[in-house]
Amino acid sequence: MNAPAPRRLVALLTLAGALSLPAWSAPAAPAPGAVSTEAGQLAIRHEKFTLANGFEVILVEDHRLPLVAFNLWVHAGPRNEAKGQTGFAHLFEHLMFAGSRHVPRGEFDKFVDAAGGTDANGSTNFDRTNYFFTLPSNQLALGLWLKADMLGWMIDEVDSVSLANQQDVVRNERRQNYENRPYGIADEALYQALYPEGHPYRASVIGSHADIQSIKLDDVKAFARTYYRPNNATLVLAGDFDPKEAKALVQKYFGSLRPGPKPPEVNVAMPAITKERRLVVTDRVELSRLTLAWHTPAMFRPGDAELDIAAHVLGGGKASRLYGLLVRDRQLAQSVEVGQGSQSLSSVFEIEVVARPGASLDEIEALVDAEVARLATEPPTDAEVAQARATIETQVLQRMEKVTSLADLVNHYNQMAGDPGYVGQDLARYAALKPADVSATVARWLQKDHRVAVIAQPGEQVLPPEVATPPAPTKAGKGEREALNAPEVWRNKPPAAAKAKALTLPAAQSFTLANGLTVIHSPKPGLPLVSASLVLRAGQGANPAGQPGLAGFVAAMLPEGTTTRSAQQIAEATAALGATLTAQAGAEEARLDFSGRKAAAREGLALLADVTLHPAFAAPEVARKQAQRLGALAQAREQAPLLANVVGNRVTYGDGHPLAENALGTEASIKAVDAAALRGFWQAYYRPERAALVVAGDLTEAELRALVEPLFGAWKGEGAAPAAVPLPPARPIAARTVVVDKPGAPQTALAVVAPGPFASTPDVAPLKVMNAALGGLFTSRINNQLREVKGYTYGIYSGYTLGRERGQFGIRGSVRTDVTGAALVDMWKEIEGMRAKPMGAAELNRVRNAQLLSLPGLFDTNVAVVSGYAGNWSSGQPLSAITDLPKQYTAVTSATALKAAREHLDPSQLIVVAVGDKAKVVPQLEAIGRKAEVLNVEGKAEGKPQP
């Protein structure tokens, strides 16, 4: 259902170094979790067993929250595809959600919504396909009923109609992620250069249009018979359950599935590259990009861990060598990414550098080559290796925080290492290696003659001939369906839920320092992790007239140097902690975020305080950041969905409104910024009385107070605070349609927008329930009609942005170019239908429960809790606004949801922004009675000069 899993997934799955045990007093004991430290190593308590039919089950009992994650891996991916069937495994993933013998078509996701499910999706990578969701713990039986029917009886309902629909959906996904995404076709060209014809990794996971469209129903059935059998799948249950009950239910629901023959082995040698392969790919991009890639050892093989460390040393963040050289010092690169993409047959080590406007890729490549050569001859420093280990350790701990990602991690180790508890041995790989091992491995594998170099540069996008979409069948043919397992009538009735546990959300308390700084604290004992956010009323709305982008520029400058630390020293200090420290400005607030291990909390909060209270705004750093933001402005023009949002804000708010411009500003405003302007804004708006520090994690209130008082207690705003000036309202508008031309685009990116209510509106809960039905859920009316019924889109969703002084409604997504007009007609029908009559009881219960019962799963990490309370403070709501959510959602009725639709969903105010091929889109709009205005990428009339 979602995009193919990133090739660098493994970078987040590996673990380095022994777990550091923090020297803090122990908070109140949490409910027992599955993650522990045994003999100084990280471990996941689990139990694995196999049913008589070969079905593997792994139980991870974890009672921290009343949730259970259901994570089903089928051990098949593109590595198992036949020749000419690229994308088959991924297409099959989509078909798994179309219905089964005992779960009617279209009902699977509705059951998950009604039960309060979260994180419901599927994904495919080269080596496997997974299907996952997380439910409240009283729905253990329901989750197993659904998973068993997917695996055992999905093929019963696949026919030519469902196949044709999902072929359309997947081809839309391909357009969105490859043809209509910057550098998408260059990414695909890289793998085609790395791997020869016939190698299962040669094609992208999603496959080609020709292969997707050529898949036949008989192919689907054969794939199911071979791979979708209980003896080729593993289920991980992670969360709050009784193991004895879980075992009995697993046997009940999966025990009768018939095993299949053992799938054929896949033995493919790593391709040998003996001479550098170079290719140039032109694409609709504004910035050139260099990608260098090598074949490297398979996952968990000797050399894999060393190259993972090498990737961090070379390009693992702002402290890395290539970032410092290319982005900070030479200012040749917009961004640098380096990763060891570990896979089962072989891995790929990849260096990716996006050039600044006007920078030479030849110069960049020479500098990259020199750094790789230096690492091959001179071992990294002990500090560099320690930084990499700390970062990887933190990432793995954070994966264990959610039962959803914990379950997936266990399944990953089970398939790729043959041991669901492999985390300890994974740790040992990193603890054992020495800097010299990294250097020797780089010298062995990253030789210039053994690589592929892909240059992506601006130019015409060259695609294969368009593959026609045949008319979709309207009904299944006779004899199209077959079964792998006998129908079992008792499965027709979904199991009842057990008694639900009390629905509680993470509470927070607040206290105020003498200088006016609000501190909001939500304790979350368990894993030794802490997250914090300093949120200030210093967003785009505070930008002075004629200085768009200034708020964002100030926030971006904060980690780039203080009066006592350089940008490099800040980056190195953050990396040494294995932490993240970021700063950005939104519409109404600026935020500085820290996340890391509890052992890093003291130093991490000290860094956060330093960059907030003592920014240097040094002239060289300002100039560097100017160039970087100008590059980002160019990149924004490449991305159709982002461009649709930018133009949507322009036409909603109008010239002169602080929120009308791109958050980056304009080319002129970026060039005009100097240190004095930045410091003036910081002095005016970075003040303790205008700020809140929100902290969640494994800290007691006493521990937090002991940290905060010395770091932030002496903070005082400089000079007099400016008078608070309310944001001007969005201008009264009438419906209009605007088009931004993107010649040759295979999709139209849509943003259908209008002003909306503020966070203070008393009907927030009815509004959100109504929107869930309209376009907020995967099962919503709009997404179901445009994706599942018509096959126009990969996905399209609606939502309300509810701020302190800013509100906006929007429907956003991309549709196939040739159905732009038809998609808008269907969208309007759903909008009018939402306003015409109240929801029926079944739909109301489903969408209301999707909001209400999912709440524990939406606040299951420190980052989620901090984000919730930070947004709450920013929008002017009391702490109780979060803990009162269950009561508010429970009170929503069909009548209150209908009232919210009629008051806050006015079709006469909706503005359609369409970014796509003007020559093809405008006639469609005119045919449905919409006169289109053509605007440029700044949202102004074509040809009008930029101020």
UniProtKB/TrEMBL annotation:
Keyword set, alphabetical order: Signal
Q: Which residues form the Peptidase M16 C-terminal domain?
A: 214-390, 673-850
* Disordered, as annotated region: 463-482
What SUPFAM superfamilies does the record point to?
A: LuxS/MPP-like metallohydrolase
Report the residue ranges that make up the Peptidase M16 N-terminal domain in this protein. 57-195, 525-629
Per the record's keyword annotation, is Signal included, yes or no? yes
Q: Name one Pfam family in it.
A: Peptidase_M16
- Domain of life here? Bacteria
Stretch forming the signal peptide: 1-25
Instruction: Spell out the family assignment given in the record's similarity comment.
Output: Belongs to the peptidase M16 family.
The protein's name in its UniProt record: M16 family metallopeptidase
Source organism of the structure: Pelomonas candidula
Q: What is the lineage of its organism?
A: Bacteria, Pseudomonadati, Pseudomonadota, Betaproteobacteria, Burkholderiales
